[in-house]
Amino acid sequence: MAYGGLVVLRGIDLDVHRGEVFALLGPNGAGKTTTVEILEGFRRRSAGEVRVLGADPERGGDAWRGRIGLVLQSWRDHRRWRVAELLTHFATYYPDPRDPAELLALVGLTDQAGRPVDRLSGGQRRRLDVALGIVGRPELLFLDEPTTGFDPEARREFHVLVERLAREEGVTVLLTTHDLVEAERLADRIAMLVGGRIRVCGTPSDLARRAAAQAEVRWTAGDGTARRERTKDPSRLVWQLHRDAEGPIADLEVRRPTLEDTYLHMVHRADDGTDGAAPAGRGGHT
Ligand SMILES: Nc1ncnc2c1ncn2[C@@H]1O[C@H](COP(=O)(O)OP(=O)(O)OP(=O)(O)O)[C@@H](O)[C@H]1O
């Protein structure tokens, strides 16, 4: 995908399975929204092949669109509407909508039902966005940075809601986020998108295992200097140090990198232009 001469996606190949929560994780400007807009049919791709629920999004009709729920990054302008009215109005677009009152309870907006939309807080607006996104009982839900502006409690409630939609109702969720904790908590699989390329893709535990493959050992040497070494076999290194020191190793610390370390490492490598991105998906479609 290129905007004029600016290439922003460089050969993304991914495959989201039915019923899974898939997180596209990446820093600002990585290309997450562009990817999602292409999948939603809002943006014409420059090249490549895309299928979403069996259709090319550029040619998806009303019936196709009705099977998809969207929670976009930018707020649509419905300021003059009251919360419950807006939701009830949106419900009429769909053949089998959720009950607006139940939905307000589900997203924690019952007390704000009669309030005009422009009097909601940022987090409450986001919850309303989510309610609007799921009122039509979508099979596939796109959530573009859904928890921006949420306080920790709202974030947790939102996570529980997404888990419920996925586990109990079998909704496929494609989520974009730059919050690693959110991706780890919610996603069955995570793709890290940096600089328009997918750097890694796998389950949170796959990614954590990859991240932790090399441990960092830190200690203070006999001459008082601080030392650090990365190794796949920290117990061996510690054993050697212990033997060489003929006793305890000063300030010994063995640390496995976290997923966050790996993510930040990838982001920095991409910034430096020293990355060698690997293809992530197996090709295919939802
Ligand atoms: N309409 C547009 N015209 C030109 N360039 C664009 C347009 N939309 C996005 N871009 C550029 O494409 C790149 C990817 O942007 P995109 O919004 O897809 O990233 P993102 O990962 O969603 O970022 P964020 O986390 O900040 O929302 C950025 O360099 C951005 O400046």
UniProtKB/TrEMBL annotation:
Places the protein is found: Cell membrane
GO terms for MF: ATP binding
ABC transporter domain ranges (all copies): 1-220
Coiled-coil blocks: none
Keyword Nucleotide-binding: yes
Gene3D superfamilies for this protein: P-loop containing nucleotide triphosphate hydrolases
Keywords: Antibiotic resistance, ATP-binding, Nucleotide-binding, Transport
Primary localization class, coarse: membrane
Keyword Transport: yes
UniProt topology in membrane: Peripheral membrane protein
Pfam family, one: ABC_tran
InterPro entries found in the cross-reference section: AAA+_ATPase (IPR003593), ABC_transporter-like_ATP-bd (IPR003439), ABC_transporter-like_CS (IPR017871), ABC_transporter_ATP-binding (IPR050763), P-loop_NTPase (IPR027417)
Protein name, entry field: ABC transporter ATP-binding protein
